[in-house]
Structure formats: structure tokens, C-alpha cells
Amino acid sequence: MHRVNGQTRAETAYNLHKTVVLVGMPGSGKTAVGRALSARLGVELRDSDTEIVESAQMSIAEIFERFGEPFFRDRESKVIARLLTGAPAVLSTGGGAWLSPENRDLISAQAAVLWLDADIELLWSRVRHKTTRPLLHGPDPRGKLEALMVARRPAYEQAELRLEIAHDWSIEDTTDHVLRLLHAHNVLSEVAT
After folding, report:
1. In this predicted model, what pLDDT tens digit does every residue of 91-134 receive, in sequence order?
2. What DSSP assignment string belongs to 112-165?
3. What are the angstrom distances between the C-alpha of 82 and each of 50, 91, 164, 165, 186?
4. How large is the C-alpha radius of gyration of the chain?
């Protein structure tokens, strides 16, 4: 059971036909929505950032500081390729993973790609107090976030699917919208119960 608009309703069972990869800016909800989506679908949640942190035994910020962004991006590409194999799942990627043309080709060939599109105000409200975003460190983090958004938008626009996130949506609301969108594009089907 889960809650929708304050009411509890029975879960719907789904059959996921291929892996769903969530892309978008830092703060767009990739991890939180990915977690809720995988639970609702009954499939594994894979997170490329978590895999990188676990294998390196250091935070992403530490990897950036010690080895630089190119090293991180190379690791990220290898991890994503590995996480795309196996049974259909939900894959949450880091905000910059989709920027690489090689990653876009690899992901698009094997998965449904969903861009979680949130505006700058929503993104800023979610990331402004976080210290785990290495690309937002410095004297003007909001300015950096805005610049990242402008720079990354053309790549995000290449995603197969797009969901514009409303400010008042909860994680469950967003997940409901994601499920409807995936169903409408035949990425999943409802299972008769």
C-alpha cells in the first residue's frame, strides 16, 4: 500500500521491460525517486555514484580532489557499463554521467532514459545546504548550479523521456508520474493481479 493525495491505495504490480536510467541535475531527485521507483517495481536499484564511492573507499568529493574530474568520469563510465547488464533495474546516475556522448550512446542502446527536469529554484532548495556536491563548492554555489544547468541542458534534452518536476510533488507523487510516463512509453506493463 502507498499514499496518494493523503489516501492509501493498493499497489499495482508491474513488469519492467528494460532498465530505466534516471538523469538530471544534482537535486533533481534521481536517488530518492530511484529508490521509490525500484521499490514500487520490485526491482533492484543501482546507483553509479554509490558503486564508485564503495569501490574507491572515498567520497566523490575526495575522488575529485585527489584524482580530478577526468579520472572520476572514466570510472563512472566503466561502472555504468557494468550496471547496465543483467535483469531490468532502476539505475540512478550522477548528474554529469549523461554529458559524455559515449555514456549517452551506451545507455540509450540498453535502457530507457528519463530526465528528471527540475527548475533552478527547486534544485537550489534541495542542494544549498549539502556539502557532498563537489562541483558546487566555492564562493558562488548558486551561480555554479545555474551555469551547470545551462551547460548541461542540451545533453539532458537528448534523453528519450522527460518529466518536469513540480515544486509541490512529494517523492511518491513524482514516482506516480514516472510510472505513468514509463507505462505510456511501453517501458513497463501492468501485471494482472
Report:
1. 988 878 899 999 999 999 999 999 999 999 998 888 876 655 55
2. EEEEEE--HHHHHHHHTT-S--GGG-SS-HHHHHHHHHHHHHHHHTTSSEEEEP
3. 13, 11, 29, 29, 24
4. 17
Q: Which three cell numbers stand for residue 133?
A: 556536491
User: Which tens digit of pLDDT belongs to each residue from 35-65?
Assistant: 999 999 999 999 898 999 998 899 888 998 9
Cell of 53: 564511492
Q: Nine-digit cell at 93?
A: 546516475
Contact 18, 88 (CB under 8 A): yes
Q: What is the distance between the alpha carbons of residues 104 and 102, in angstroms, rounded to a whole number?
A: 5
| Residues written for the chain | 193
pTM over 0.90: no
